[in-house]
Design a protein that fits this description.
The chain has one helix spanning about 1-25, and strands at about 40-50, 55-60, 65-70, 75, 85-90, 90-100, 100-110, 115-120, 120-125. With about 140 residues, it is an alpha+beta fold. It has a domain at about 40-125: Immunoglobulin-like (Sandwich). Strand 1 (about 40-50) and strand 2 form a beta hairpin. The longest helix has 26 residues, at about 1-25. About 15% of the residues are buried.
């Protein structure tokens, strides 16, 4: 009896795993370029860094806000290693990265048929008096 049950359990397990393969293929949305070109617009990808105690470090969970010229905004957060990815249609954007109470702004242009645009963000620490205008909250 035991020898007949084992193949049945193995077959049932194989059928269940095969049925879930398509769901697993679409569930992953990792950081980086997927290899397939996007017809209109592209990905804004990169890593966020900040200098802490004279060492450049990744800024985990930094908030990246993009504002287009027509006023629409998109928000993304970097992962635990500072990497972020955000799809943008063609146009000009103002990218604002905020980490703790520090902020940094960049101007970015995404053109048609652009697969990706790499923007590594380095947040300046405005601890010195000449950078006080860059504080997100005073």
């Amino acid at each position: 009896m035991k020898m007949k049950v084992l193949p049945v359990i193995a077959l049932a397990l194989a059928v269940c795993m095969t049925a879930q393969l398509p769901a697993l293929a679409f569930a992953y949305s990792g950081i980086g370029y997927s290899g397939t070109p996007i017809k209109y617009g592209g990905w804004l990808i990169g890593q966020v860094h900040i200098e802490i105690r004279h060492r450049m470090q990744e800024a985990p969970w930094a908030k990246i806000t993009t504002t287009s010229t027509n006023g629409s905004t998109q928000v993304a957060y970097s992962n635990g290693n500072g990497w972020y990815r955000l799809y943008l249609p063609p146009g000009d954007y103002k990218v604002n990265a905020t980490y703790a109470h520090y902020t940094q702004t960049y101007d970015v242009t995404i053109s048609e048929d652009q697969i990706y645009r790499l923007l590594n963000i380095i947040i300046d620490r405005p601890d010195m008096p000449e950078f006080q205008d860059r504080l997100a909250s005073k």
